[in-house]
Amino acid sequence: MKSFITCIAPTTFALLLATVSVNAMDDHTLLTGITLDQLELRDTEEGTATAWDGQLWLGDDLNRLQLNSEGEFLHSDSNTEEAELQLLYSRAVSAYWDFHAGWRGDLQATPERHWLALGIEGLAPYFVDVNATLFLGNEDRSALRLELEYELLFTQRLALVPELELNAYGRNDPETGTGAGLSDLETGLRLRYEITREFAPYVGVHYWKQYGNTADFSEADGEDSDGVAAVAGLHIWF
């Protein structure tokens, strides 16, 4: 399935851009936005790291083209530990839910992996933000990701934000250190204060843990399979 890797990104981009362009001419206002949900420093056992999770989007109320990026850079060895990029088309299917489809690229660590992404995101009961995505790659690779986030408001400006991310894979991939089944969990608790609606500093804690064969791969390489870090960062959108 070599053609899958070489063709999925440019083909997906062309199709999704065409879809957004057509809908933009259909009397919809074309808007753009940038959100840095997390831009933070983490105090890890390996040293200070910079982590980010952000999104750039273009579209209207029904259709959007999204460019998502997340990753972590470790300062002590000037190395990007993780880097993921997603190019998605998002379509509103109800008042609170969107369907999305597109491409995901795991650009670091090597070797790179490329996936077709299909999923839904929206607001579940009790105001829980949900993002569930199925990923299909070459050589019969598959993965599933579930992300949950909730904002507990103490005042109009102060909020406590718990979040959870789970990743599972359909088969072992020793080259990238991921194992079949539940692979890893990341969870965090961040206390955010909105100086303005667009600018909110926060402090908190971030915890991660690997399971099953993924943990075995890390331990065999002399790496930790879990960790906790104090964090401080910014939430920005405009």
Mind sketching the topology for me?
Elements: H1 2-24, E1 31-44, E2 47-59, E3 63-74, E4 79-92, E5 97-108, E6 113-124, E7 128-137, E8 142-149, E9 152-153, E10 158-169, E11 181-193, E12 199-210, H2 212-220, E13 226-237
Antiparallel strand pairs: 1-2, 1-13, 2-3, 3-4, 4-5, 5-6, 6-7, 7-8, 8-10, 9-10, 10-11, 11-12, 12-13
Structure, described:
There is one protein chain. The protein has 238 residues and is mainly beta. It has one domain (2-237): Porin, CATH 2.40.160.40. 13% of the residues lie in helices and 61% in strands. It has a twelve-stranded antiparallel β-barrel with strand order 1-2-3-4-5-6-7-8-10-11-12-13. The radius of gyration is 18 Å and the shape is globular. Residues 1-25 have low confidence and may be disordered.
Number of separate strands:
13
- By DSSP (H or I, 4+ residues per run), the number of helices equals 2
DSSP strand content: over 45%
Stretches where pLDDT falls below 50 for ≥5 residues?
1-25
Structural class, by secondary structure, is mainly beta
Largest sheet: 12 strands, antiparallel, barrel
Distance linking N and C termini? 40 Å
Helix share bin: 10-25%
Tell me the strand order in the biggest sheet: 1-2-3-4-5-6-7-8-10-11-12-13
Question: How is the CATH topology named?
Answer: Porin
- What's the helix-strand series? HEEEEEEEEEEEEHE
- Assign an overall shape: globular
- How much is the radius of gyration in Å? 18 Å
The CATH architecture designation is Beta Barrel
Highlighted features:
238 residues, mainly beta, Porin, twelve-stranded antiparallel beta barrel, 2 helices, globular, disordered N terminus
